[in-house]
Design goal:
715 residues, alpha+beta, Chloramphenicol Acetyltransferase, Luciferase, domain 3, 5 domains, 6-stranded mixed β-sheet, 5-stranded mixed β-sheet, 33% helix, 23% strand, globular
Length: 715
């Protein structure tokens, strides 16, 4: 390929947001998509290269290239004659017993290879040849900046036409579609829709807590909705006069609410923003609409359907405003999370499915699903109804930092069970409707087979748990049972975090945060009264204790919050603390914990005080308060030259003079694009050679924490 250098223009806001996402996980293919299909025959690589070259020359958007500096993203359109050839890589797949798995892995690796935003075209192709002439797989990988899933049909048709008849292929240039600027009325509509919304950085009560440092690694599961669930959906469509998509969306809201999303929920839903007459345009022409629904647990499901329908249809009338463009106006000022503050869960309804077949030069062919190994959101449900088979498949895409495949399998089973339950309980308040799966019921039954369930307690949790004491006092012959409860008392299924309770004639709350395990045991995670929120990140103080206890020299660790400051007390395991112990402990917590969870002080003592066999939390808290009150106050925490330089940059970029070493960049008004510019200035001003990623600033958002992180990397 030959690349020329026409005048560049600035990238749009949503194009820049894609680039910023790559800055979070540099060197990855997080924005890569593909058109991939199997052919029952042999594809000519040279003819495929010629066909793809013709298509790229024809479409301005496929000749649009991007360049990056440390702080900016620009774009330009190459002239058609600058594209001399789009090469096709030929890859042979060795015939083995696991040949199909090897083939899929090879295709996914090809698609996931990152594109360089250096002015090169953002399209490449490969032909995978099966052994023994058993057919080929063609994969065209493209960057999301020039392609979206809704471009697939057009690109496929163009590629087949150019491959089958290159001499007669229409090559009249097709200009890139330019999206209209949203009207002020549209912007006002979304401001009104989202005003007052405060997203929860904690995520759900299910899966792993939110991570301060993302990797965006993703996985995918497919689930076929049961016939019983589909029958209920069909009946609700008729009775409630609502489209299938709205029924499925309303049930998705209810599923999320039952897993801790709250009663004020925003779900993202992708929609094409191609202008009329350009419905088949190739390019990145998708916005994700933030669909906000306020749920009342005292109202029936049909009220939720009515609300979801109104929000869905109203929002479709105002698709031109990106969520990011109003995000800063509704963002919770106390959050320093890298996560989207509006939504972390997506709903996508794709009627017609993706299993259509076609022909290429007389050979039968079919689309092959390929994942790039990433997920930008915690959870995405793609509903793919197949009219011909009267079946609906849910493609669930999820972040592996948040969920395991087993977690998502349970979510899908619960969604199915919830739909089935709604058929008999349409008029029942949604707060009373259970969506438990058969596996949930089986786990709780197994847990009580021999009395109260066995509890799993880690060393940082065991000293504080009330369950063991209450269980020991309980008469095992009585009808005593354990359950995990939501704040409103609703019993929670497997894996969902809540308060552990015991019940016979009355309910006793243990104060323990716990969850059911699939085998019927209960995992105790901490105490409700030891939950704290620092810089928008909610966590248990047991997490800090566990990081300290991971050091072999530490026998006991207890962290307390004193006036909003975390202080950790540790006792050594019967050995004298060496001079480097504190440095080792600081390194430990900075490795294992997100920035907001790092204690401000670590105090090494000979032993920890106890009351009735448990650590004396009140005594340690008073000691921490006294320590903080009487210790020599340092000069506004800017104790190093690097920290002082960072404070100065914070003030310059945020245009505020009231900032110090503990000021969070994002909680003080910063945003992702400004953060990119800040990091570049940090490197240029301080001369440091350490590589600092955008994700590192999210994890270490204050001058003091970033300075300590940089110093640790240099060491």
């Amino acid at each position: 390929m030959v690349v020329q250098d026409p005048a560049p223009t600035a990238a749009t806001r949503k194009e820049t947001d894609l680039w910023l996402l790559e800055r979070l996980v540099p060197g990855s293919g997080v924005n890569n998509l593909s058109l991939t299909f199997d052919v029952e025959g042999e594809i000519d690589s040279a003819a495929l290269s010629r066909a793809l070259t013709l298509v790229v020359r024809k479409y301005d958007i496929l000749r649009t290239v991007f360049r990056t500096s440390e702080t900016d993203l620009t774009k330009e359109v190459l002239a058609a004659d600058a594209i001399t050839s789009v090469d096709v890589t030929s890859i042979d797949v060795t015939e083995t017993e696991a040949a199909e798995d090897a083939l899929q892995a090879a295709v996914e690796a090809f698609v996931a290879e990152p594109f360089a935003l250096d002015g090169s075209p953002l399209v490449r192709a490969a032909r995978f040849r099966r052994a023994g002439g058993a057919g080929d797989v063609v994969s065209v990988a493209l960057h999301h900046l020039v392609f979206d899933a809704m471009s697939t049909v057009t690109l496929l048709g163009e590629l087949i036409s150019a491959y089958q008849a290159p001499d007669t292929y229409a090559t009249d240039p097709v200009a890139a579609v330019v999206e209209a600027e949203p009207s002020e009325e549209s912007v006002d509509f979304w401001r009104d829709q989202l005003r007052g919304f405060r997203g929860a950085d904690d995520g759900l009560w299910y899966g792993n807590p939110a991570s301060a440092t993302p990797n965006l690694a993703g996985d995918t599961l497919q689930y076929l909705l049961s016939d019983d669930a589909l029958a209920v959906v069909g009946r609700l469509q008729r009775e409630l006069r609502a489209p299938e998509a709205v029924i499925l969306l309303a049930a998705y809201y209810l599923l999320l609410a039952q897993h801790g999303a709250g009663s004020d929920i925003v779900v993202g839903s992708p929609v094409s923003v191609r202008p009329p007459g350009h419905e088949g345009a190739i390019g990145y022409h998708v916005n994700v609409l933030p669909l906000r629904v306020r749920m009342d647990p005292a109202k029936p499901f049909k009220r939720l359907v009515n609300r979801a329908r109104a929000v869905f249809l109203e929002s479709l009338g105002e698709p031109g405003v990106t969520a990011e463009s109003v995000l800063d106006e509704v963002r919770d000022g106390g959050s320093s999370s890298w996560r989207n503050s509006l939504f972390n869960h997506l709903f996508n309804y794709v009627p017609g499915g993706t299993s259509g077949t076609f022909e290429v030069a007389g050979h039968p062919a079919r689309i092959r699903g390929v994942e790039n190994g990433f997920s930008k959101f915690d959870l995405e449900f793609f509903f793919m109804p197949e009219p011909e088979s009267a079946k609906t498949t849910i493609r669930a895409v999820f972040r592996t930092q948040v969920f395991t495949p087993a977690d998502v399998e349970l979510l899908l089973a619960r969604y199915d069970a919830l739909l089935c339950t709604l058929g008999d309980q349409l008029d029942r308040p949604i707060g009373e409707i259970s969506g438990w799966s058969a596996a949930d019921h089986a786990a709780v039954l197994a847990g009580h087979r021999d009395g109260l369930p066995e509890a799993l307690l880690g060393p940082s949790v065991a000293p504080f748990s009330g369950y063991a004491k209450l269980a020991a006092k309980s008469d095992s012959s009585a009808l005593t049972r354990a359950f995990v409860a939501a704040p409103d008392g609703t019993e929670l299924p497997v894996g969902v975090r809540g308060e552990l309770c015991l019940a016979d004639e009355a309910v006793t709350r243990t104060g323990d945060v716990a969850r059911w395990l699939p085998d019927g045991r209960i995992e105790i995670l901490g105490r409700l009264d030891r939950r704290v929120t620092v810089q928008g990140l909610a966590f248990g103080l047991e997490d800090v204790d566990a990081a300290l206890l991971a050091h072999p020299a530490i026998d006991a660790a207890v962290t307390v919050a004193a006036g909003g400051v975390l202080v950790s007390f540790v006792a050594t395991a019967g050995i004298e603390a060496g001079p480097g112990l504190l440095d080792q402990l600081w390194k430990q917590v900075r490795t294992d914990l997100p920035g907001p969870a790092e204690p401000a002080r670590i105090i090494v003592t000979e032993g920890l005080p106890t009351v009735n066999g448990a650590p004396d939390l009140q005594g340690l808290r008073l000691r921490a308060e006294e320590l903080l009150r009487t210790e020599a106050a340092p000069e506004p925490v800017d104790t190093t030259e690097l920290t002082r330089a960072l404070i100065a940059l914070w003030k310059q970029f945020l245009k505020r003079e009231d900032l110090d070493a503990d000021s969070g960049f994002f909680t003080s008004g910063g945003h992702s694009l400004l953060a990119v510019q800040l990091l570049q200035r940090v490197k240029r001003t301080t001369g440091i050679q350490v590589k600092i990623r955008l994700a590192d600033l999210f994890a270490h958002p204050t001058p003091e924490k970033l300075s300590a992180y940089i110093s640790g990397k240099k060491a």
